Write a sequence for this structure.
């Protein structure tokens, strides 16, 4: 974005840190390959990022 728009001097992002836990498929008599995840109900803090020229 900074390369495409020289009039922008900085960008700040704030994102919720949402954890995703493994979903146990064995309860459905399926093999659990540990590839299915589900998000928790609440975020665990925030992730902040600032990029400037």
């Amino acid at each position: 974005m900074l390369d495409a728009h020289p009039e922008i001097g900085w960008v700040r992002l704030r994102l919720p840190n949402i954890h995703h836990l493994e979903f146990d498929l064995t309860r459905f008599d399926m093999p659990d390959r540990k590839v299915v995840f589900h998000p928790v109900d609440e975020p665990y803090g925030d992730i902040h990022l600032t990029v400037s020229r």
Q: What stands out?
A: The chain has a mean pLDDT of 91. Strands lie at 10-16, 20-22, 37-39, 46-52. The chain has one domain: 10-52. The longest strand covers residues 10-16.
